[in-house]
Amino acid sequence: MNRRDLLKGLAGLPILGTYAYFFSRKVINEKRTELNNFQKFISSKINISGTTDKAIFTDKKLRVGVVGYGIRGKYLMKSMGFMTPEEVDQLSDKARKVFLEQPDLNVEITGVCDLYQPRLEEAARAAANIERKGISGFSERPVKMYRHYRDLVTSPDVDAVVIATSDHWHAPITIEAANAGKHVYCEKALTHSLEDVYKVRDAVKTNRVVFQLGHQNRQAENNVIAAKVIQAGLLGNINLVETTTNRNSPNGAWVYHIPEEAGPHNVDWKNFLRDTNIPFNKEHFFRWRLFWDYGTGLNGDLMTHEFDSINQMLRMGIPEIVTTTGGIYHWKDKREVPDVQQTVMEYPSRHFSLIYSASLASSIFRPKKVMGNEAALEFGSTLNLFVEPSSKIYKDYIKNKDVIPNQPVVITNDYQAQIDAISSATEKYFASRGLLYTSHDGKIVDTTHLHIAEWLNGIRRGTPVSCGIDEAFEEGITAMMATIAYREGRVVRWDGKKVI
Amino acid sequence: MELKNFRAVIPLFILRTAIGWLFLHEGFYKLFTRGWTAQYFLAQSKGPLQGFFQIILQNEFFLTLTNKGVIFLLILIGIFLVLGIWERLAATMGMVLLLFFYLAYPPFGGPSSMLAEGNYLIIDKNIIILLSLWVISILRPGQWIGLNKIVFNNRSNS
Question: Do A152 and A235 have their domain in common?
Answer without folding.
Answer: no
